[in-house]
Design goal:
Elements (H helix, E strand, L loop, with lengths): L1 E7 L5 H22 L4 H15 L1 E10 L2 E8 L9 H17 L4 E8 L10 H8 L8 E8 L19 E5 L7 E8 L3 E3 L3 E11 L4 E8 L2 E9 L4 E6 L4 E9 L12 E9 L3 E7 L6 H9 L4 E7 L22 H7 L6 E5 L9 H12 L3 E5 L21 E8 L6 E2 L1 H5 L22 E6 L3 E5 L5 E8 L2 E6 L5 H4 L8 H12 L9 E7 L2 E7 L8 E4 L5 E4 L2 E4 L2 E7 L4 E7 L2 E7 L18 H6 L4 E3 L12 E4 L11 E4 L5 E10 L3 H23 L1
Parallel strand pairs: 3-4, 3-5, 5-6, 6-33, 8-14, 15-16, 15-17, 17-18, 18-24, 34-35
Antiparallel strand pairs: 1-2, 2-36, 7-9, 9-12, 10-11, 10-13, 13-14, 19-21, 20-22, 22-23, 23-24, 25-26, 26-30, 27-28, 27-31, 29-30, 31-32
Amino acid sequence: MSVLSISFSPLIPAYALWLVGAVAALLALLAIFSRGPVAILRAVALALVLLALANPSLVQEEREKVKDIVAVVTDRSTSQTLGDRSAMTDQVRAELERRFGSMADVETRYIQADDSGGDEGTRLFAALSNGLADVPPDRLAGVILITDGVVHDIPPNADALGFRAPLHALITGRPDERDRQIKLIEAPRFGIVGKEQTIRAQVMERGGTGSALVTLRRDGQVLSRQQVRADTPFSLQVHIEHGGTNVVELEVEGLPNELTQANNRAVVPIEGIREKLRVLLVSGEPHAGERTWRNLLKSDANVDLVHFTILRPPEKQDGTPINELSLIAFPTRELFQQKIKDFDLIIFDRYANQSILPSSYFENIVRYVREGGAILVAAGPEFASYGSLAQTRLAPVIPGIPNGRIVEQPYKASITDTGNRHPVTRDLPGSEASPPAWGEWLRIIGSEVQSGATLMSGANDLPLLVLRREEKGRVALLLSDHAWLWARGYQDGGPHLDLLRRLAHWLMKEPALEEEALRASADGRTIRIERQTMGDTADPVTLAAPSGAETSVPLTESRPGLFTAEVESKELGLHTVRSGELVAFVSIGPANPRELMDVFSNTEALSPIAGATGGSVRRVAMEGDQSITVPRILTVHSGSRFSGGDWIGIKPSESAIVRGVSVFPLALGFLGLALLIGATLAAWLAEGRRRA
């Protein structure tokens, strides 16, 4: 295709050319007024001089027409998976591919917009900008969006689009959609263990019944169910049961045929914080290991330690008057009757029954344990004597009965097969070597284990550390008083801090040290699942996605007692992991994603920006109609509107590639010289005749 045009390349600056032209025009007018029509020839000569200075050229371009580009943006965000929108999207795109395939002068650029990172929602226009980064704006003939209308990066005006082509939106979804969701209004991030926290929420619905049943769960356990009014805020009280993360879940019953049940649940992870861990340490007599316990517990700023050492038992009579003694009386009644429930842990360190605590107090301790308390018995030689705690009414909760043997010989504490799977003793520093890379202990108390799990053994394979659950409480029995040798660095010492701290935290129900636990964490879209168990094997876990789709995930043993798996998730939102009665939650992206906050398809959000470009927004399926209607596509060469009742238009760009250029100067050469001489000669002859 050839295109002719005239081009000017002035020989002098443009402002000078305009100045010379103005002067020439003024002189020509004066000459015409003073000399009459004969001066017109002089004006023609001046015009030819100006034309020569302007240096006009005739330009012939050889152009090759290029195809117009139409962008089709397909929304594949989470909200597009609701209802039958995904199937609608596939049908609309297939129909557009068929129609654009028959248009020879159009190149179609297909762009897919997936879920954005973080909680930014659907970003169609960002995907459009990235997909057209290599396309000149004047080549774009139109943009078609296949979406549900839930878009979170709509430009404020048409100028921000960066192109002048019409924008059309084909909306999936139906106008009669119904859904119910729960919205958090106030949710605490932290809570004191043992206290109540208030959560405010609201049930929002469209096409619902006006009221709904809300279920409150904590760590998968149902706490309450109550009927609430829709679109009205309500409050719920939740008890913070333990330290660490308390996963509180609010779930509202679903509606029949609602869009999704993924937004029927809201999750509030509340970090449980203990005000102070109150520990009562009772030492039966002064000994070298007493300071080890005291230093360990005092080093933790979160532990409030109450420590008593029995220095003068009641049977000791040396004649010293009571008023001259500097010792205080052991407040047994206050500690073991009035305030026993204030303690999180009671430690009996080499304590022997010396008639200080009556039998009723031991019964109080047993009741305290069974109702959720914890005791640790750090035994010494007294445990094998007649004053043993195993000979008191505390015996029902003590996991081992002394057999009267006291073995005093060097030995290295070793971890049993059970201990290798238990979080308290697994991976203790030094345990990876054989024999363990820690110092020896010199004494162990012989005992017959009646119940519980033996985690460590000593000389002659005698039990050394035994843990037991007693109803709601926990009991630990350490059958040696030589842990202090590790603290003092005897034979290079050992991991006394790790062992004793883990032991104390297990007794106080630290979630990270549970024998049977299920945990899940996320790294991007990768879900890592950990199953802690005392069994030799672990059954596959069930992973439930926000959409409700469930997947069975097999686990692989990474360490004794610890089974893991990694799964790639395709959905944003809260995922639930279950293994029997154990449940864990993990969120890909935000726990309550923006993409599911507004799930109804709509035509209003995109109408202003589409209308500003001359485009349109329309649904592809109407209420009660199961068929999909895709409008006809027409080419509109002029006008400001590019849509009609059953059609949408694209605007051809007329873009072309210049393959060759030919330039023909018009004011230079012999032709220009002949014209100038001819005009000057004609003016001279005309004026000469006029004088004659």
